[in-house]
Each structure stands twice: as C-alpha cells, then as structure tokens.
Amino acid sequence: MTESEKNISISQEGSGKVGRVIRMGTRKSQLARIQTDSVAFTLKEIYPDVHLEIVAMSTIGDKILDTALSKIGEKSLFTKELENALEKNEVDIVVHSLKDLPTSLPPGFTIGAILQRENPHDAVVLHPKNAGLTLDSLPEKSVIGTSSLRRAAQLKRRFPQLEFENIRGNLNTRLKKLDEKEDYAAIILAAAGLKRMGWESRISQILGPEDCMYAVGQGALAVEVRAQDKDILEMVSVLHHPDTVLRCISERAFLKQLEGGCSVPVAVHTEVKGSMLYLTGAVCSLDGADCLKDTMKISVELDNKVNESAQEFAHVGVTATNVSSNALEAAEKLGVDLANVLLDKGAKDILATARKLNDAR
Ligand code: DPM
To answer: What is the distance between the alpha carbons of residues 65 and 283, in angstroms, rounded to a whole number?
Structure first.
C-alpha cells in the first residue's frame, strides 16, 4: 500500500473500554474524504467504543484525468485499489458513491449498507457571467460541460439549441475550469456532490425528471465490506435506510438486466409512496434522438420477514439482512421486469449502437 497515507481522524475517548479498531478506506479526493468522514461520524455516534482509522488511497480513476470516464470503460476504475486493500485486510470498510459501484461486485465483496439518499437529481452550475439564466434562456450554441453520456443524451433531446462537451477532473477541478476559463457556459453535476462539498450556493437549477433523469444509485452512499466478515456486516447494517435500499436495488437490477455500465445512457427515477415502489427507467441513443422510457410499480410492504444468511441473499451486490426479504426481492424483480419491457421495445439495439459510437470516438 505504497500510495496510502494514514491518519487517525477519530479515536477512542470517554468510556474507558478499549474497542476494536476499524479501518476505513477512501479515495483521496475531497468529496471522497467528506463522504467517508460522514459515515465515520455516524458510526462513531452509534458505536462510541470503536476506534476508527481512515486510510486514503489514489485510484486509477483519480490518476487518469484527461480521458472521459465513458471511454476508460470499467466502473471498477475508482474501486479496484480500495477492494485490493479490503481483500488484504488492510481496511475493513470502504465508503463509495453508490453510483460508482458496478451492479456485480467481484466475488468476496458486498455492499453492507446504503445510507439515506441525498437529493439524487442533477444540477446546473453556471459560469458567473451567466448568473440568472437557465438552460432554457442561455444563448443558442452555449457550451455545456459534461462527460456523462446519460446527461448529454437527455439534455440534447430537451435543449437542442445547446452544445455539449466533455469536462473531466474532480469537482474542484471542474468548478475551476468553469469559472476561470471561457470554455463552458455551464456544467452539470450531481446536486448531492455539490451539497456535500458545501457548494450548494452554486446550484442555479435542479433538473427534474422531465429534463434529465438521474443515474442509478446517484446521491446515495454505499459501504462496501468483505462478504464473509459477519461482524463488520452486522455492525454497518444499522446504517441501511430501507426506502433508499429498495429504490437503489430496483435501479441496479434495471441497469444489470440491461447489461449497462457507466458507458451507456441509462437513466432512472424512483419513488416510494406508501407501500408502493415506482421505477421509471430510460435508455437513450447518444444524441438523444431515440429514447425508450417506461414506468412500473410493485408493492414493497415492509413485513418482518428478514433473512439470516448473508451472501447468498445479496441483491445486485447489496446485503440487507435487516430489511424484509420479500421487499428486497420485489424491488429487484421490478428492475428486471422494467428492463425486459424496454428490451422488448428495442433497448438492445439502442444500447449496442451507443456502445459502438462511444468506442469509436
Ligand atoms: C458516474 C457518472 C459520473 C460519476 C456517470 C453519470 C459523472 C461523470 C461526469 C457513474 N460517476 O452520472 O451519468 O460528469 O463526467 C460521480 C459524482 C458523484 C459520484 C459526480 C457527479 C457524486 C454524487 C453522488 C462521477 N460519482 O456526478 O457530479 O454521490 O451520487
């Protein structure tokens, strides 16, 4: 672990009991650190006797900053180094943005907790000179910065007068590129990331589902652990937010059934109303010209039927032994069913073409 820097950010105090040391792995970006610290803070509140140690690492995704994410391909880009450290017992817990985790995790790993979702929508951040404008009122041919195929496809469809160009780098870099140059009139970022960074004041517009649906898992934090580590699994399971878990399982099952990764324009919108879970999913061509979209719902009554054994009951990589197994199964089925409906309508061709065009760029 040559790249790692260790710093003990939270340690034992008070009770006099010597607790177990839990090591939390994180990427080095400011957002990743903030996200890990927030989970550490919550764990510390629940388990005051546990020692938490934070281990920060650089990942390939952090090092390759000049290539669009969708071109580098693999989702494991941001997660591989962290999973290696988990595997070697160098860390016990890794905190991720759920949307950066593939729908199938490598064997031996599972998502042991999904925390309550932040605002899952995308947000518009304007160049200061455009203050007061919206995507509707920006001058024709204004350049919008985004490297997300999903955002570009949906927004091209909705705002054909605008132009879209890649922008890469972590959030700090992107805001700098926006503010200090004249390359972009605005950029699109997840509201959740902006909020966690303390940059909510830069949000000029939140994009609703009619403009741009969000990415699978967007806005939710996930805690990845070793699937066999029963103690840690049990410890982190109290962090699960049941509504978020059900929404995200349906979204992940949808993406998995479509065989989509981060290099395809797939978007979702979910809601829990009473005991019903609603999933809207869309598959778009890169230029947004073709867009298949549908909504389905399923009952996810939260009964007390919980499952005891861990990994064989993981749903799209998520182990949630403290959430009703009937509800988890229903959520997963909803995602699979909706994907099948769109596949029947021709989603396969749209995705195949999008992949081919993206690879050729
Ligand atoms: C994934 C995408 C992006 C990230 C693709 C997408 C955005 C890439 C880009 C899968 N991961 O959304 O269609 O804009 O070039 C990422 C962000 C967050 C997690 C930043 C962002 C923070 C929000 C969260 C990058 N991963 O999307 O603005 O926790 O959901």
So the answer is: 27
Mean pLDDT per segment of 10 residues, for the chain of length 361 residues? 38 48 94 97 96 88 58 62 93 95 94 98 98 97 96 97 94 95 97 97 97 98 97 96 98 93 85 97 96 97 60 85 93 98 96 88 77
Which ligand 1 atom is nearest residue 168's CA? 15
Name every residue whose Cβ is closer than 8 Å to that of residue 137 and which is 6 or more positions away in sequence: none
Strands 276-284 and 122-126: unpaired
The label of the residue with tokens 């993206």 reads 358
Give residues (CB < 6 A) around ligand 1. Answer: 69, 97, 99-100, 146-148, 150-151, 189-190, 192-193, 215, 218-219, 262
Residue located nearest, by CA, to atom 27 of ligand 1: 190
